[in-house]
Structure formats: structure tokens, C-alpha cells
Amino acid sequence: MAVQGMGTAQWVKALDNLDLLAEPVAAALSTMSEVAPELANQAVVAAIDPEFADTQAMTNHYQMDLSLSCNCVLVAGKRAGEERIAAAVVRATTHADVNHAIKKLLDVRKASFWPQDRAVEASGMEYGGITPVGVPDDWHLYLDSRVSEGFCVIGSGLRSSKLAVPGALLAALPGAEVVEGLATEI
């Protein structure tokens, strides 16, 4: 699959290479292939050097267009003793608006990034590879409106690969909400 700006990484069909994805990501993509095969069949994955898993390092090393990269951040807050968790997906050229937009969506007084150890344990994914594909069903899943258009290079659940999917696939994930203004420009 050739998408402008995806750089020098060797992309292969994700559904044929599920071993390159974390278990919850592979399971979610397989389920998506049954529900929306036209979207799931567009997903591609590339093995990468884990040393270059972080967004800026990856885009530089693999000569990718930064605007294709998307980050998934985990945010939590409490209301009436209940912890509310959200996976928020934004383009790498933006910042998630945690203190306003996400806090309001979660309906909490204070929202903050989830600690690394909890994020890894609860998601079943490696830190630096956490992705919206395969997050637990009881989490909120918010997508900045810019993510739902075009292609997105996201985590695969592992630091040793990246997943690229159409934004429409992310918008079709169970419980996904496309939110205008979820992120601010850098």
C-alpha cells in the first residue's frame, strides 16, 4: 500500500501479519475485519527498531511525514468516586486539550495523564505503543476530528512496530467519538 509520506518503513498488510501487533490490537483488528472489511483490509503494519518508536524519532529515522502520525494518550479523572478513563487520539502536530476538552467530556473536575504502569497493565500494550485499536470497551475513546480523515500512523501495541490505518477505521471503532477541538495546534 502506497500512502504519500509514509517514508522508508516496509509496510505489509496488517491482517496477514497479526504477529506484529499486540494481542488486544490483533484481536480488535480481526473483529473489525468481520464488521468493516473494507476498512480493516486497508490497515498496514511495519516492523521498526524500538529505539525509534517515539513519534519524533520514528518520523525522522523512517522519513515519514509528521502530519500522518497520531498519538494516543490515556487520561483519567474521578467523579463521585468513580474513575473515568479515556484514550484520546490526536495528530502529532497537535496537543490533546486535557485541561479543557477532555476534562469536560469526562465530566470530571481534574483530568491527568494516566501513570505508565497502570496504562501498560490495563491496556495490555507496551508504553510508547499504546493505540486506540484494542483499548478496553469500558474506556471512553475520543478522536480529534483531524484524526478521522486521511491515514494515521499509530502504535501497534508494541514498540517494535507501527500500524497505519484510515482515519475512518478509527472512527468506526466501538464507542469512538469524533470530537471537534479535542486538540490544539502546536
TrEMBL record:
Ranges of residues in domain YbaK/aminoacyl-tRNA synthetase-associated: 50-169
Domain of life: Bacteria
InterPro entries with a match to the protein in the record: YbaK/aa-tRNA-synt-asso_dom_sf, YbaK/aa-tRNA-synth-assoc-dom
Gene Ontology molecular-function annotations: aminoacyl-tRNA deacylase activity
One protein family per Pfam: tRNA_edit
Name of the protein: YbaK/aminoacyl-tRNA synthetase-associated domain-containing protein
